[in-house]
Amino acid sequence: xxxxxxxxxxxxxxxxxxxxxxxxxxxxxxxxxxxxxxxxxxxxxxxxxxxxxxxxxxxxxxxxxxxxxxxxxxxxxxxxxxxxxxxxxxxxxxxxxxxxxxxxxxxxxxxxxxxxxxxxxxxxxxxxxxxxxxxxxxxxxxxxxxxxxxxxxxxxxxxxxxxxxxxxxxxxxxxxxxxxxxxxxxxxxx
Length: 190
Fold this sequence. Notes:
The protein has 190 residues and is an alpha/beta fold. The chain has eight helices and six strands; from the N terminus they run αβαββαβαββαααα.
């Protein structure tokens, strides 16, 4: 199975959009994580997937759930077979972020791209800082989330804003300690 560099990811998205269009379907999705970071030009490391935090239905963000809607999942699986990708190359893994609340102003900052029957909205650099800080708390120093966060070059103010948001998703003292450790790695004291 192939990892996704930006070229392979673009190829997969174009094929997915064409399949959806040919089958008379249209999906609007919102992506975060490594695949999204590739597409907005922040990272160039290969990734195994593109993570969907939401679907857009009737102009509302809704959870994609762990299992994507059947017609989308079928098209994703078909693309995986054609391009020799993991069957989960597009998934709703981070859907719980939507349930717990996205950063204020998230929708207004989305970057939209159209691939046939697929409208892909990408989380902004600012929002990705939030998600990567949240993920870095559970990652070892030097792990991919730490590295991605460094590539985002967050300011102290952006890190503080992201930390405050992350702590609304996990209110435990242990998580607060982990966030403080990551912040210290970036020279920010709480």
